[in-house]
Amino acid sequence: MGAHFILVGLLCLCGLSVSQECVREHLENVDFPGTDLTSVYSPDAEHCQLLCTQHPSCLFFTFVRPDWTVDNRHFYCYLKSTPSGEPNRQTSLLGVTSGYSLKACNPDSRPCLSKVYQNVDFFGADYRSLFTADYEECQRACTHDPSCQFFTFVNEVFTPEKIRYKCHLKFSWTVPRSHRVEAKVGVVSGFSHILQTPTQFDTACQAKLFPSTDIPGSDLEMLLAGSPEHCLSLCSAHPRCTYFSYFASDNSKRFHCYLKSNPNEMVTRAQEGVTSGLPARFCQPDNSWMKVAHDGMDFRSDDIRYVLLDDPETCQQTCTEDPNCQFYTYVKDTFFNSKYWRRCYLKRVITMPAPPKVSNLANVVSGFSLEGCTHTLT
Description:
By secondary structure, the chain is of the alpha+beta class. The chain has helices at residues 7-19, 45-54, 135-143, 228-237, 312-321; strands spanning 27-31, 36-41, 60-64, 76-80, 91-100, 117-123, 126-131, 150-154, 166-170, 181-191, 208-210, 213-214, 219-224, 243-247, 256-260, 269-270, 274-278, 294-299, 303-308, 327-331, 343-347, 357-368. It is globular. The two termini are 40 Å apart.
C-alpha cells in the first residue's frame, strides 16, 4: 500500500523521526493497527525494523511472523507513521511483532545481515545460479560477488532432485535513486558527496557514453535518474544490464533511465536528446556525477526533513554531513511560491538488501551477503 503525501504533511511527520528516542526493543504479539505507509516483505522483525529505519518516513512497524494463522500474510512488514510520532493504538495480536525505527540510534547504513533462514525462500530477483556443496558456500559465493545481495540455497533432500544443491544469487538496489524526478524552475537538486559505493577496485573505470544515440528495445527496467552518468551507475550496479539509454529532453520520457538486457547484440540509432552507454564492470567507477548540482530539477519525494538555509551549496554540504541523507532539493527565492523559499529538503531511500518476496518453502535456506560483516568474511 504505497502512499503519497502532500509536501507539507510529509515533512511534518518526517521531522519527528529525528527527535524520536532510540527504542530497540520489540513488542511480541502486539499490533500497531492502521497508519500504514507501505508494506514490504521481510524475513524477520529485525530486518523489518532496519527497513523502517532506512525508509524516509517510517517511525514504527508491525511484522507478521511465520506463526501467524489468520491468513497467508506471512513475512509482511508494515511500515507506519503518525503526525504524533507514536502509534495511535496498541492491541494484542498473536503472530505479529511491532517496534520502532532506529533512526535515533545512529544506525549503520550498511548493516551486517548474518542470519540465515531455514525453510524460507527469497523468491525472485535471480541473476545467476550455480551448484554449491552447502548453504555456507552459497553464502560465500554471494558475499564475494559484488552484485549479490541475498541468496537461496536448495538442499540435498529437496524435490525435484535435479535442482538439489542449487545456489540462487539475487540482486536488489544499493545505489540511491529518486522515485520522482521533475523539471521545475527555482529548485536545485543533487546528491550527497560521500555516498557509499560498492566494493572498491584498484582499476579506475573509463565510462563509455554515446551522445545523441538511442538503443531501442531489450528493456530490463526503467528508473529515474538525474543525468546520463547517474543512469550509467545504475546500469553498472545491475548484473543483468548490458547497456542503457537515458532521455534528457523528451517531455514524456524526460529523466527516464532505461536499463537494457541483451547479451547477443546492440543496435543503435541516432536520436537527439538521448544518451546511451555501456556499464563499467570490476573497476572503480567515476562518481563525479554525485557532485553535480542540477538547476531546475526537483527530486520530489523521499523526504527525511527540511531545514532553512541560505543557498544550494550549504544545502548540499548539510546533506553530505548528515549520514542519513543521500540526496537533496533546495528551493531558491525564484520559486513561484515564497512559502517554500530557502527550504533544503534532505532525502533518502532504502538501499539495504530487501527480497521482493519471502515465503515458506521446505528444504531451502536463504540469507544475505556478508559484505557488511567484515569480521565474518571468509
